[in-house]
From TrEMBL:
Pathway: Metabolic intermediate metabolism; carbamoyl phosphate degradation; CO(2) and NH(3) from carbamoyl phosphate: step 1/1. It comes from Lactovum miscens. One of its GO terms (cellular component) is cytosol. It comes from the Bacteria. This is Carbamate kinase. InterPro entries: AceGlu_kinase-like_sf, Asp/Glu/Uridylate_kinase, Carb_kinase. Gene3D superfamilies: Acetylglutamate kinase-like (3.40.1160.10). One of its GO terms (molecular function) is carbamate kinase activity. Signal peptide: none annotated. Residues 3-288 form the Aspartate/glutamate/uridylate kinase domain. Belongs to the carbamate kinase family.
Amino acid sequence: MRRIVVALGGNAILASDPSANAQQLSLENTAEQLMPLVIDKNVELIITHGNGPQVGNLLLQQLGSDSEKNPAMPLDTVGAMTQGQIGYWMGQAFTKAFDKHGLKKPFVSIVTRTVVEATDPAFTHLTKPIGPFYTEEESEKLKSQNPDWQIVEDAGRGYRRVVASPLPVEMLEADVIEPLLNAGALVCVSGGGGIPVIKVERGYQGVEAVIDKDFSAAKLAELVGADELVIFTSGGDVYLNYGKPSQSLLTEVTSSEMNSYINDGYFAEGSMKPKVAAATLFAERTGKIATITSLDNVKNFVKNGAGTRIIGS
């Protein structure tokens, strides 16, 4: 039995239409694409997902209706709201797919808190893009309306707001995953990287941040003893010199080789770099395999492990 942690990007949920109906339809398609993994009797599957587009959009809604009687919720609470929202949609989508394929299988989504360090430099160096893309003109208008926001150009695709993205240290709900897997459940955990909290004298306190879902997926995979981490991206497999005449596909590389490529600046900061870095970190720490590929490639991944495979060294 192989235990696999799958990380889905927020764009596997939201493409262009931000309506609830469109996002649920996207998730129904995503659930169907993942069914070859779900059906595989030799696989225990844990799913994580991003929430960058969703948390940014919800935060804008909160700020748009902010008043003394109806105050906007802070970023950690908005992250929790999107975890519940997307977890519900995922449950609906996978239950529908289970019925279609004649499976009797429970789906459980866990609202997850992820511990971060209060001293993480990410709180002063903001890097995590959230919300929609803006034109340069729109970004300048938003900056004037929200002077405490940082808005940056995102990998040539437009401008987005960035927030703190501290590294995950621990997941408070990690221990409940094993019993759910033993009960035959498909488990969705650490949505949006988890709700960021710091340890205080008694309990934990939420903080204004969005944790990168790929680094949280890597930490989760490590904590649950996963045999493999799989990061599904809209861009597919990993290339050197992507989009240039000299681009070359990476099929199987060691973690030390991949670290060299990262340090040499081959991957875009707001795009492929965090995915590659998180996958490499998992492989490096565990000596196991991390794969990066596209959702369209699930069947080939199940059949022959297709994708960019990073092996711990």
